[in-house]
Write a structure and sequence with these properties.
By secondary structure, the chain is of the alpha+beta class. The chain has four domains: 7-80, Arc Repressor Mutant, subunit A (Orthogonal Bundle); 94-126, no CATH class; 145-226, SH3 type barrels, CATH 2.30.30; 247-342, no CATH class. It contains ten helices and eleven strands. It has helices at 7-18, 27-40, 48-59, 94-107, 118-126, 145-156, 258-263, 276-284, 302-309, 321-342; strands at 67-72, 75-80, 161-165, 174-186, 189-196, 202-206, 210-215, 247-253, 271-272, 292-298, 315-319. It has a five-stranded antiparallel β-sheet. The model has no long low-confidence stretch (mean pLDDT 85).
Length: 343
C-alpha cells in the first residue's frame, strides 16, 4: 500500500468520486479532482500513474472494493459497483445515533421529498419511532414532491439539467439547459433558480410549470460567481429586474392593519416612520388622522404591486407616484368588475 503523507487525502477524494452516480468520471477526471484538492490543502500535484495505483489499492488490497468500468459520454469511466460502498464507513457512536435520530424526527416530517425513501430506511435503522407531524408547512395542491426531490439532488451534486416547461396559456413545451443553483419558495409555490448554459442568464421556473427534467452530466457544471440569495434582497417574490433601481416607498396603514404588517413585514427593509417626519406627513395628508406611516426600500415588480393591493383600503401608497398609480389602476379595475356584477 502506498505510504505517502497525502495518501489518505487522495483516497478520501477518490472514495467520494467513485460513489457518485450523478457524474461520469474517467481517469483524467480523477487526476484533476484529486490534484485540485491536494493543491487546496497545500500539497503538490501527483501523476496519473499515482492515481491509477491508488485506484488499484482501493480495488484490491487492503480495501477490496468492487469497481465497474463502463462507457459514458465518450469516456471510459470507473465507479463503485455498489453506490453505497465506502472505504471509510464506520459505526455511529451512541451520541451520533441520538443526534441523528433527533434530526430525522424533524426532517422526516417534511413532505415534498418522496424520492428520498432512504430517509425512511435510515430512520427505521436508527429506531426512530413514527410520530404525528409537529411542524407543518403550507404547500401547493399540485403534486411536485418527486420533482422537488430530483432537483434537490441535482443541485447538491452540481449537475446540469435540461428542463421541459410550459408557460401559462401556452401548450407548447419549451426546453432549456441550465446550471441549477437553488430552490426557492414564495407564496406557497416552489421555484427553480439557475443560469442558462447558453448565455449565463439567470432564470427562475415555477415547479408546477415544469413537465420533466433530464440530467446532462456530459456538460460541465458551472457554479455561480454571485450569491444567488443576494439577488432577492431588494425585491418581494422572485421577479428580478436588473434595469430597475431600488426605490423608497412611503406607505400608510390603518390602526387595524399596522400590527400585522409590523410583525410580519412584507420586505426586510420595513421601517416605521417616527418623529418629525410623521408630523410632516400628517400636514401633507390631513385626511389621514389615524394609522401609522412606514417605508420600504425595494425594486418595483409584479409581486410588490400585488402585495400592496392585498390589504385593500387598510393600506395606501403615498409615494412614489408611479407605484401609487399602478395600485390605483388595479384597484379601480377590480371595483369596475364588481360594479358590473352588481348592476
Amino acid at each position: 500500500m502506498p505510504q505517502t503523507k497525502n495518501y489518505i487525502v487522495r483516497c478520501m477524494v477518490l472514495d467520494e468520486l467513485l460513489s457518485d452516480r450523478h457524474h461520469y468520471y474517467d481517469i483524467h477526471d480523477y487526476v484533476d479532482k484529486v490534484n485540485e484538492k491536494l493543491v487546496n490543502d497545500g500539497y503538490g500535484k501527483v501523476t496519473r500513474r499515482c492515481i491509477e495505483k491508488d485506484i488499484k489499492s482501493i480495488e484490491f488490497e487492503p480495501f477490496y472494493a468492487e469497481l465497474e468500468r463502463y462507457q459514458a459520454a465518450g469516456k471510459k469511466c470507473i465507479r463503485y459497483k455498489d453506490p453505497g460502498f465506502s472505504i471509510f464507513k464506520k459505526k455511529l457512536s451512541k451520541d451520533e445515533r441520538l443526534l441523528l435520530s433527533e434530526v430525522l424526527r424533524t426532517i422526516g416530517q417534511f413532505d415534498g421529498l418522496d424520492n428520498f425513501t432512504w430517509l425512511d430506511a435510515l430512520a427505521k435503522g436508527l429506531g426512530v419511532a413514527a410520530s404525528e407531524p409537529i411542524i407543518e408547512f403550507s404547500t401547493s395542491p399540485m403534486d411536485q414532491s418527486t420533482l422537488l426531490g430530483e432537483l434537490f439532488t441535482t443541485i447538491s451534486n452540481k449537475v446540469v439539467v435540461e428542463v421541459s416547461y410550459q408557460k401559462f396559456h401556452d401548450n407548447t413545451p419549451i426546453r432549456s439547459i441550465l446550471h441549477p443553483y437553488k430552490l426557492k419558495q414564495y407564496n406557497n409555490r416552489w421555484y427553480l433558480l439557475g443560469a442558462l448554459v447558453s448565455d449565463g442568464f439567470i432564470v427562475n421556473y415555477p415547479l408546477d410549470r415544469i413537465n420533466s427534467i433530464t440530467i446532462r452530466p456530459e456538460i460541465k457544471y458551472r457554479e455561480s460567481t454571485d450569491d444567488i440569495s443576494e439577488r432577492f434582497d431588494d425585491v418581494i417574490g422572485v421577479t428580478v429586474y436588473h434595469d430597475r433601481a431600488v426605490e423608497r416607498i412611503i406607505l400608510w396603514a390603518s390602526d387595524d392593519a399596522y400590527p400585522y404588517i409590523e410583525t410580519k413585514p412584507m420586505h426586510g427593509s420595513f421601517k416605521p416612520i417616527r418623529g418629525e417626519k410623521v408630523d410632516h406627513l400628517r400636514i401633507e395628508y390631513p385626511q389621514l388622522i389615524d394609522g401609522r406611516f412606514f417605508q420600504l426600500e425595494c425594486v418595483e415588480n409584479y409581486e410588490l404591486i400585488r402585495e400592496l393591493c392585498s390589504f385593500g383600503k387598510e393600506l395606501l401608497v403615498l409615494s412614489p407616484k408611479h407605484i401609487q398609480d399602478k395600485v390605483f389602476e388595479r384597484v379601480s379595475e377590480h371595483n369596475k368588475k364588481y360594479e358590473y356584477l352588481r348592476t
